[in-house]
Amino acid sequence: MQPIRILTCTFPLLLTLILTSPTSQCAGEIYAVDAQQIGVKLVPDKPTIMIGEPIYLSFIVQNDSNQDLQVLVGGDYRNALGRPETFTVTVLREDGKHVPQPVAGPGFGGLVGPQKLASWGSYTFKLFLPHWATFAESGKYRIVAKRTLNLRQYRPDGWDFKEKTTDVQTEATATIEVVPPDSERMGELIEDLGTTMLSGRSDKAEAAGYTLSYIQDDRVVPYFVKALETNSYELKSRACGALSKFNEEAAFQALKRAMETKGENIGDTTTKELANQLANNIRLAAAGALAKSPHPGAVPFLLSKRDDTYEGVRITVLHVLGKMKPEEAIPILQEMAHDQSKTVSDEAKRYINLLSPKE
What we know:
- It is built from ten helices and eleven strands.
- The longest helix is centred in the last third of the chain and has 21 residues, at 272-292.
- The chain is globular and about 70 Å long.
- By secondary structure, it is α+β, with helices and mostly antiparallel strands.
- Helix content is 33%, strand content 22%.
- Strands 4, 6, 7, 8, 10 and 11 form a six-stranded mixed beta sheet that branches. A three-stranded antiparallel beta sheet has the order 3-5-9, with no helix packed on it.
- It folds into two domains: 17-22 and 31-179, Intracellular proteinase inhibitor BsuPI (Immunoglobulin-like), CATH 2.60.40.2360; 183-305, Serine Threonine Protein Phosphatase 5, Tetratricopeptide repeat.
- The chain has helices at residues 183-197, 203-212, 221-229, 233-243, 249-258, 272-292, 298-303, 311-321, 326-336, 342-355, and strands at 17-19, 31-33, 38-44, 48-50, 56-63, 69-74, 87-93, 112-117, 121-128, 139-153, 166-179.
């Protein structure tokens, strides 16, 4: 593949791409797309947000040419936040101060595949701003997003990973103003997001639930309590994580009920076995939420569920015991060392050794 000239700038970006045709590669022919325009721009959902208000950014890739292309996406989101690590996003206040970025932990890749970038069309990557910045002060901020785009001529049968790609380094910027929190406005936002989340299964409802889970305001709790009362596996799972952040009696009681989830409480499943497995997953999510919960009754209640039928829940209990005082944890660990599951039993013994006084 011949070299290409790459410019990094905001929208539009003019490139000349040299693309290898899959159908002519055997003959050694190269098809060139001249004066190829690939533009990128970064667009926040809102130009002004409150401290504590989560929004999305749209990283829009524009194909201003007569050639259909495809762009490789994915393979970058399996981390603690689900943040796409193929992007580099920095946020700076107008005085040049960097905004702290949450730690996503180690990455484990993810599914990879192509998306069509149609002639004179666009493809949009959605970036969740709280994944990249935690705002603590009001002011004006500049957001810089960078990504290397892996491009190739469009082929309807998918993507051949053996073929070379044209890799284009791109950068786009946007500005946003962050203002102090307003209780009335935040209440209206919570109501809108909560209502949308509970309205049904759709991309919009899913995005609303995810956004709502990042708002640290007690007024979100009733919506996630209602989400746990539905038979939706997705809503139940999202609600467990969200309720783990609140020292609210309603949140604690809802998580206690979630620990009783059975297969019959899960809807839209094809088999009883699948429903039971999804119910196990919800109990595991609830156990993890109780382990993190600031409510004083959360950990004692979780310890009482150490005989749960799902091995994953019992292992979660062990991890909690491993962080407790030895005199409190060891008696329960000794009990769990006789668990019918070898995995649970071995883990209990490991914690006993770690917590026992050394001679």
